[in-house]
Amino acid sequence: MSINATLFVQAIVFLILVWFTMKFVWPPIAKALDERAQNIAEGLAAADRAKSDLVAANQRVEKELAETRNATATRLADAERRAQAIIEEAKARASEEGSKIVAAAHAEAEQQSVRAREALREQVAVLAVKGAEQILQKEVDANVHADLLARLKTEL
């Protein structure tokens, strides 16, 4: 065979190969490439959505943290005010109890003072009667004696 005929047969075989490749091989490859490009595009879009969702979630978290901090600060302030109120109430009760104790002590001291005065009057009356008895060296009538003691008590 001549080189021209060989070249012509090779060109026909090459054209058949090109046609076969374009008809049966190329469409699945192109389809696979298109699908892969679409999957990559979807993945990038999903990544962008996830990124924006992450930013939004971070903003929500920051907002909730701020709200929680504010609520905690409010609760702490309320607790401090309540503690101060309880302390003030306890101080008031303690002061009141102290005043009652002091008043009771004053009353007890006054009662003891009155009892001591009465006892002293009794002793002075007895001493006065004994002194008068010794001065007079005579017996005094019991009724007169009781009257004298009563008068002495009232004078003292």
Automatic annotation (TrEMBL):
The organism's superkingdom is given as Bacteria
InterPro entries the record matches: ATP_synth_B-like_membr_sf, ATP_synth_b/b'su_bac/chlpt, ATP_synth_F0_bsu_bac, ATP_synthase_B_chain
Record's subcellular location: Cell membrane; Endomembrane system
Q: Which segments of the protein form a coiled coil according to its record? A: 44-71
Q: Which Pfam families match?
A: ATP-synt_B
Membrane topology annotation: Single-pass membrane protein
Give the principal location in a single coarse category. membrane
Keywords annotated in UniProt: ATP synthesis, Cell membrane, CF(0), Coiled coil, Hydrogen ion transport, Ion transport, Membrane, Transmembrane, Transmembrane helix, Transport
Transmembrane feature ranges: 6-26
Leader sequence segment: none
| GO cellular-component term (any) | plasma membrane
Any GO MF annotation of the entry: proton-transporting ATPase activity, rotational mechanism
Q: Does the keyword Cell membrane apply?
A: yes
Q: Does the keyword Secreted apply?
A: no
Q: What does this protein do?
A: Component of the F(0) channel, it forms part of the peripheral stalk, linking F(1) to F(0). The b'-subunit is a diverged and duplicated form of b found in plants and photosynthetic bacteria.
The family database entries (NCBIfam families) matched by this protein are listed as: ATP_synt_b, PRK05759.1-2
Task: Name the family.
Answer: Belongs to the ATPase B chain family.
Q: Which HAMAP family match?
A: ATP_synth_b_bprime
Question: Whom does it interact with, and what assembly results?
Answer: F-type ATPases have 2 components, F(1) - the catalytic core - and F(0) - the membrane proton channel. F(1) has five subunits: alpha(3), beta(3), gamma(1), delta(1), epsilon(1). F(0) has three main subunits: a(1), b(2) and c(10-14). The alpha and beta chains form an alternating ring which encloses part of the gamma chain. F(1) is attached to F(0) by a central stalk formed by the gamma and epsilon chains, while a peripheral stalk is formed by the delta and b chains. F-type ATPases have 2 components, F(1) - the catalytic core - and F(0) - the membrane proton channel. F(1) has five subunits: alpha(3), beta(3), gamma(1), delta(1), epsilon(1). F(0) has four main subunits: a(1), b(2) and c(10-14). The alpha and beta chains form an alternating ring which encloses part of the gamma chain. F(1) is attached to F(0) by a central stalk formed by the gamma and epsilon chains, while a peripheral stalk is formed by the delta and b chains.
Name of the featured protein: ATP synthase subunit b
Q: Which organism is it from?
A: Xylophilus rhododendri
Gene coding for it: atpF
